[in-house]
Amino acid sequence: MKIRKQIPSFDEKRGEAFMLDKKADLAGPGIGDYKKLVHDLPDDYQAILTPMERMRAVFAIKNYIEANLCKELNLQMVQVPLIVDKESGVNDYLDRDGSRTPVEFPCGLGLQKPICAQVVQAATKWKRMALAQFGCKIGEGICTDMRAVRKDYFLDHDHSAYVDQWDWERAITKEERTVDFLKDVVRKLWKVIRGAGLIAQEMYPQLKNSKYPPIPEELKFLHAEELLDMYPDLPRKQRETRVIQEYAPALFIIGIGWPLKDGYPHEMRAADYDDWATETIVKNGEQYHGLNGDILVWNPVTKRRHELTSMGIRVTKDTLKIQLKMAGQEDFLKLPYHQSIINDRIPLSIGGGIGQARTFMYLLRAAHLGEVTVSVWPKELKEICAKKNIHVLD
Questions:
Q1: Domain residues of the chain, as ranges?
Q2: 165 an active-site residue?
Q3: Active-site residue, selected from the candidate residues 96, 128, 150, 365
Q4: I need a labelling partner for 132 at 20 to 30 A (CA). Which of 9, 48, 96, 372 fits?
Q5: Using 50, 70 and 90 to split pLDDT, how confident is the model at 28?
Q6: Is 92 known to be catalytic?
Q7: 156 classed as catalytic
Q8: Which residue among the candidates 307, 329, 339, 375 is catalytic per the annotation?
């Protein structure tokens, strides 16, 4: 596959209001509105499981996914850091606009120069380094039970400051850096996620509720350019909502990060792990880019789009340079993680993070992350939830 050297402009000339709508939707969750959330949360919610039943189901799902993810992708569960050295460059900045920064603190009693430690926001870059550390060969990989803190999230029903993910990574060959290989891995992930849902339904048959449709057996694929063609005047989140309502209730969107034909990326993505710059296919005379994407599902409880995982084939040393230039972050190239890629000290890989609480919430028909995990929630949000018969753990 080729890498286009031209760096495109993000300029947009279709009107100021249109520009603001699309720009506001680029950098992750953004800032929400609790007054709006009152109307977004369901009015007729009734929890299917008790809090204790949910915990039993949570750990059954957890055990199933960890065992079967490792089986399907040839992974081994390993330990993962909660804190990393800032100077290593392995922490995840989530978006390339720098809007979400990690918790940071000095540590090391008695050191002349304390270590500047950061709480991880995800183990994305650490995992690729760890493939070499654990001696993973081509076709082998690792999976982690990752915990993180993302202090810059707006806290609502599906965003928490406390994050738990199955962060996984697998070593691949140069020849496997294709959209077809990406799709094959995504199908295996969906098989595992759906299988975990069926296990939970065996434990608690009431989860097969006539009020909600079954978990889709098939996952469909669309490139972000195709999605833009379908809904050219809608911002990203509205495009995603419409497509999973009208096209497929379980969908993998490919190619997130490179500017689309309207001048904007589908969503901003960090420049130093997923490869969103590589040219892939040409369709109707248009060049598509990107070897990454997200699994989105329709959540029939909240009646909203629901992201379960973000993943992709990782950057090469060439795409790393291109993406860092586009992000204005070429100074990162001096950091140990980035030097490891530039100097071929770590393998080519594919990897991702599956949101644990998001997955539990979806499979157990819950309306709020706080029903399946414990975190901090603002009083205003808890009061709104209580009025909607949604009771969070704290």
A1: 33-387
A2: yes
A3: 150
A4: 96
A5: low
A6: yes
A7: no
A8: 307
Domain 33-387 CATH superfamily: Bira Bifunctional Protein; Domain 2 (3.30.930.10)
pLDDT tops 70 at residue 27: no
The catalytic position among 66, 92, 158, 176 is: 92
Q: Is 340 a catalytic residue?
A: no
* HEC per residue, the chain: CCECCCCCCCCCCCCHHHHHHHHCCCCCCCCCCHHHHHHHCCCCCCCCCCHHHHHHHHHHHHHHHHHHHHHHHCEEECCCCCEEEHHHCCCCCCCCCCCCCCCEEEECCCCCCCEEEEECCCCHHHHHHHHHHCCCCCCCEEEEEEEEECCCCCCCCCCCCEEEEEEEEEECCHHHCCHHHHHHHHHHHHHHHHHHHHHHHHHCHHHCCCCCCCCCCCCEEEEHHHHHHHCCCCCHHHHHHHHHHHCCCEEEEECCCCECCCCCECCCCCCCCECCCEEEEEECCEEEECCEEEEEEEECCCCEEEEEEEEEEECCHHHHHHHHHHHCCHHHHHCHHHHHHHCCCCCCEEEEEEEHHHHHHHHCCCCCHHHCCCCCCCHHHHHHHHHCCCCCCC
Confidence class for position 24, pLDDT limits 50, 70, 90 = low
Q: What is the pLDDT of residues 114-162, one digit of tens each?
A: 999 999 998 989 999 999 999 999 999 999 999 999 999 899 999 999 9
Active site residue 56: no
Q: Is 229 a catalytic residue?
A: no
**Active-site annotation holder among 310, 323, 340, 349:** 310
Catalytic residue among 118, 121, 160, 165: 165
